[in-house]
UniProtKB/TrEMBL annotation:
Belongs to the snRNP Sm proteins family. This is LSM2-LSM8 complex subunit LSM8. GO terms for cellular component: precatalytic spliceosome; U4/U6 x U5 tri-snRNP complex; U6 snRNP. Plays role in pre-mRNA splicing as component of the U4/U6-U5 tri-snRNP complex that is involved in spliceosome assembly, and as component of the precatalytic spliceosome (spliceosome B complex). The heptameric LSM2-8 complex binds specifically to the 3'-terminal U-tract of U6 snRNA. GO terms for biological process: mRNA splicing, via spliceosome. Residues 1-65 form the Sm domain. One of its GO terms (molecular function) is mRNA binding. LSm subunits form a heteromer with a doughnut shape. The gene is LSM8. The lineage of its organism: Eukaryota, Fungi, Dikarya, Basidiomycota, Wallemiomycotina. Keywords: mRNA processing, mRNA splicing, Nucleus, Ribonucleoprotein, RNA-binding, Spliceosome. CDD domains: LSm8 (cd01727). It comes from the Eukaryota. Pfam families: LSM.
Length: 80
């Protein structure tokens, strides 16, 4: 799994399917984690998703064993 942060502060997670020289990234089985200071984290399913390299701030591999242990519905945080 790959975690991507975009220039507009979105947190996208999915399986890496491809990339190119312009840092455009294709994710499958992707979803967005939407953070809120008054509600828990909500997820929005996106499916197959293309992120333009111009909109990408950072990318990181996720350790799924640690990520699956988190109770994301209980996490409250301000959006980036």
């Amino acid at each position: 799994k790959l975690l991507l942060i975009t220039t507009d502060g979105r947190c996208l997670i999915g399986h890496l399917q491809g990339y190119d020289n312009n840092s455009n990234i294709i994710l499958s089985q992707s979803f967005e984690r939407v953070f809120s200071s008054d509600q828990g984290v909500q997820t929005v399913d996106l499916g197959l998703y293309l992120i333009k390299g111009d909109n990408l701030v950072c990318a990181s591999e996720i350790d799924t064993t640690i990520d699956d242990q988190n109770e994301w519905s209980n996490v409250k945080a301000d959006p980036i």
